[in-house]
Amino acid sequence: MSDMGGEIAHYFRHPSLPDVDLLRARFVTHRFSRHTHPGYTIGLIEAGVEEFEHLGGVERAGPGSIAVVNPDVVHTGHAGTPEGWTYRVIYPSVEVVEAIAAELGAPRGTLSFSAPVLDDPAAARSLRAFHRAGEAGDTLAASTTLRTALARLLTRHARRVPGDDGSAALPPAVRDARDILHASLLGPPSLEELAASVGTRPFPLLRAFRATVGLPPHAYLNQVRVRAARALLDEGLRPAEVAARTGFADQAHLTRHFKRTVGVPPGAYQSAAKRPDHP
């Protein structure tokens, strides 16, 4: 549990469901920066209103609604009313969602939720039950209600779309630049050096990168660093060492970007990865 000046965020995992992270939080002034997740983001709003930028627009999710963001889609998150918002979020991996879809007999392909805000009371009840079972450490109830919730959401609100991980749709210069950034956490090139490495000029690369990836190169690099930091924290490394290994200036720099993306500081995230933290 992380108490941040009246805002509370509880990030945790159920030991029998390691590929599904959970967050229960109340935020008032906290703002998620533009970021992505490798898996799905499914949030049940319990009180207040969350606003979030999504695919060029601003969405509003109120009490009882479910906010859904597909993998690798750039989005934000902030209070839509002065009193903030309270919600329960699950972050199932792509593999978890595809496995449940396969159990339902769905054909192979990329799963995508077509609407970012859903009104589905039955799915909302199952999501809340899953969260509570996860907090209580009830393995059978957690695994059952997770499947119930995701099965309903997939059946009613998801569709199959052609394509792979999106790499094929990227311009070659952007794809090559992205690969360079993944390999350059500790010593990234300047924009001028990056553009020269992929055979273009700085401004055309910047425009193309932002248009296709959704973030400028420096912001994308910070996302890659946060994902690398999460993996190292999962291995048990101390946050200060993680910061040094992932290219952040220091632990405070890591904490700032980590919290804007994940919602909790690295230490709270690491505690959740080690054991379930009951309220």
UniProtKB/TrEMBL annotation:
It comes from the Bacteria. Gene3D superfamilies: Homeodomain-like. Keywords: DNA-binding, Transcription, Transcription regulation. InterPro entries: AraC-bd, AraC_XylS_family_regulators, Homeodomain-like_sf, HTH-like, HTH_AraC. Pfam families: AraC_binding, HTH_18. The keyword Transcription regulation applies. Residues 175-272 form the HTH araC/xylS-type domain. This is AraC family transcriptional regulator. It comes from Actinomadura graeca. The lineage of its organism: Bacteria, Bacillati, Actinomycetota, Actinomycetes, Streptosporangiales.
